[in-house]
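Researcher: Here's the sequence for the chain we discussed earlier.
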Amino acid sequence: MSKHVFLTGPPGVGKTTLIQKVTQALKSSGVPIDGFYTQQVREGGRRTGFDVVTLSGNRGPLSRVSPSSDSSASRREYRVGQYVVDLVSFEQLVLPMLRNVNHGGDTEKRICVIDEIGKMELFSQAFIQAVRQTLAGSGTVVLGTIPIPKGKPLDLVEEIRSRKDVKVFNVSKENRNSILQDILAAVESCRK
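Model: Thanks. This is the structure I predict for it:
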């Protein structure tokens, strides 16, 4: 029996768009929901980074293109490709929300959106811990996204992918427009 629902698929396939559609549908039917998604930041037609956007409307930088590629290793930088991750900003936005969702005293199960659990987010040990606690808790259904396996496996991602209580949907260009109802039904059955 699934307790959590995750979407996976290649970058740009529409995982975040689906998460947003599911979130809207759940919100409009009165389901308690909190969480965050990541959004591209574009300037002049090119992607310059990613923001974290919480469902309560807060926003802050997750990563930005590094201004120069000099190896100024004077302060510890967390990098994924050309992006430098703003760990402080990410943790300030996401950790209070995750801790809060774990202490919900509601009788009905809350939904916690985590989009995504990827390389950038996994630099945060506190985030990894909070996600594990949320998955282990009984009062919260996680609706999240994980990347497809590529290169070196990410421990937490593989752990989630192989959990018996997680239903994983593979999102593709072929199914992304027809899969919404299946995801909604899976989330609803997790809340029972």
